[in-house]
Structure formats: structure tokens, C-alpha cells
Design brief:
- The structure is a single chain.
- With 277 residues, the protein is an alpha+beta fold.
- The protein has one domain: paralog of FGE (formylglycine-generating enzyme) (Alpha-Beta Complex).
- 16% of the residues lie in helices and 17% in strands.
- The strands form 3 sheets. A 5-stranded antiparallel β-sheet has the order 1-2-5-11-6.
- It is globular, with a radius of gyration of 17 Å.
Length: 277
């Protein structure tokens, strides 16, 4: 499904969080703080430099040319935004009053699904107005830096992944990882161990909207300072992380797909970022 969308877009325009071990980098426990009752808990991600993209040897890689990015510290929500959090926005008069369907999988602590890029940005705008803080979607480079949590392997867990570590279609193994179930739906956020930055579900569960406009590959115009890429095809936006319906290749830290900014599917959700003053 995503592959077809990607081709079409390319043609139209070129608490203390418990921390798990990262793939092969250092991890530092960080504090998760909510800026209001019912607001998402935010984890401070330290400033740093990392290599974005994937090596040519990485299985199932796409046009993910490696390049260095240096980012300032920022905050990212500990989990994907949940139905509880979305419904709080609606109850407070925000999010356009939109109530997405849950497909019978449940609301509460399940990740909100069926939301478009515009829906995601409306939630961030509501949070900004409610808290006086600068909420937004993460940039693509911020998202990948946070997903890697200091590592350079395809997954924050290392060179392989299995269905005990994330919610994805595990019916096909990735390298030495074991094959597992395809749950065929979302699961409660935080059901698996966090990565080295204390973030949950950076691999799988739902695709996550980021701020960047789509470009079929990285170019010299892509920012090297953590800011989003806002050129080329801005009718197409980037999603990261893979989802419950995707195979292991799509839940790699460097995997990226495009979708129309108006699309809203059962596999689409998001998490929010916040600038640190």
C-alpha cells in the first residue's frame, strides 16, 4: 500500500522512564514530564550528532543515503498519542472535534489511529495553546535520532527484531531474528520494553507522522541541524516507524515512507515533540 503511494508522490514531485539497552550505543536514563493533566509525558532527548540513513549492507534498505546530522536537545512524547489523549483534546474544544474510529480495537491507552497529518498538527497546536509550550511534530531526523537511541543497528534492539519486542507482522524473520505472530491490529502503547532513551513503540504499532515534506531521497538541501525538510513535495509528508501491518523491513530505524497529507488509515498515528527553551 505505502509503496504505491510513495511511487505516485515521487512522480508528482521529485516519572523516571525505565530505559532498555540501545542497539550498540550508550543510553542515559531521562525524566518524563507531562506539562498538564492529561498531556503526554515528554522525554528529554539529549543533543548529539548521529549518522542518519542506512549502510548499503542493511537488509531491505531504500534510498537512505547516510549523512551526519547534529541536533540540539528536544523533548519527545514517551509513547504514541493515545485515544485518551486525543479525546481530551476533543473534549476541550480542540482537534476540530474529530473523533476517529478505533476499528473495534479499543480506545483508552491504544494509539489513536485514522488521523491525517493535519489532524496530528491540530493536536500539537492544541497542546501549545493549553500549555504555552512549543509543541509540534518531530522532524524526520529528530525521529530517527530518538529511535536509534545511540545505536547504529537497524533496530534499537540491535541487528534483528522479533514479535516479543514490537508490534509488526513478524511472520517473516529478519536475519537471525525469530519469526513470530502477526497480531493484525494495534496494541496498548508501552506494551514492549522501551529503547535506550526511554521511548516506547518506536518500531511498529502505528506509522508516525513527522513534519518533513517528502523527497524520494536525501539531498544536499536536507537540513543537517535537526530541522525538518520543507521543500519539494509538501502535498506528500513523511511517516516513520512502521506499523502493526508491516514487515520487519518497514520498522527499521531508517525506514521511511510517504503519504498524502490528507490520508488517514488504520495504521497511521503520531507522537509529538517539543522544543526546549
Amino acid at each position: 500500500m505505502r509503496a504505491a503511494i510513495k511511487i505516485a508522490l515521487a512522480l508528482t514531485a521529485p516519572l523516571i522512564a525505565a530505559c532498555g539497552a540501545p542497539g550498540d550505543g550508550a543510553a542515559t536514563p531521562v525524566q518524563a514530564v507531562a506539562d498538564c493533566a492529561g498531556c503526554p509525558e515528554m522525554v528529554t532527548i539529549p543533543a548529539g550528532t548521529f549518522t542518519m540513513g542506512s549502510p548499503t549492507s542493511e537488509l531491505y534498505r531504500g534510498a537512505e543515503t547516510q549523512h551526519q546530522v547534529t541536533l540540539p536537545a528536544f523533548a519527545l512524547s514517551k509513547t504514541e498519542i493515545t485515544f485518551d489523549q486525543w479525546d481530551a483534546c476533543v473534549a476541550d474544544g480542540g482537534c476540530g472535534g474529530f473523533k476517529p474510529e478505533d476499528q473495534g480495537w479499543g480506545r483508552g491507552k491504544m494509539p489513536v489511529i485514522g488521523v491525517s497529518y493535519g489532524d496530528a498538527t491540530s493536536y500539537a497546536a492544541w497542546l501549545s495553546g493549553k500549555t504555552g509550550k512549543q509543541y509540534r511534530l518531530p522532524s524526520e531526523s529528530e525521529w530517527e535520532y530518538a529511535a536509534r537511541a545511540g545505536g547504529t543497528a537497524p533496530f534499537s534492539f540491535g541487528d534483528a527484531i522479533n514479535s516479543e519486542q514490537a508490534n509488526y507482522d513478524g511472520s517473516t524473520a529478519y536475519k537471525e531474528g525469530a519469526a513470530g505472530p502477526n497480531r493484525q491490529k494495534t496494541v496498548v502503547v508501552g506494551s514492549f520494553a522501551p529503547n535506550g532513551f526511554g521511548l516506547y513503540d518506536m518500531h511498529g504499532n502505528v506509522w508516525e507522522w513527522v513534519e518533513d515534506c517528502w523527497s524520494d531521497e536525501y539531498t544536499p538541501a536536507h537540513p543537517a541541524d535537526g530541522k525538518p525538510f520543507l521543500g519539494a513535495n509538501c502535498e506528500g509528508r513523511v511517516l516513520r516507524g512502521g506499523s502493526w501491518e508491516d514487515y520487519a523491513g518497514d520498522v527499521r530505524a531508517s525506514a521511511r515512507v510517504a503519504s498524502s497529507r490528507e490520508d488517514a488509515t488504520w495504521s497511521d498515528g503520531f507522537r509529538v515533540a517539543r522544543s526546549i527553551e
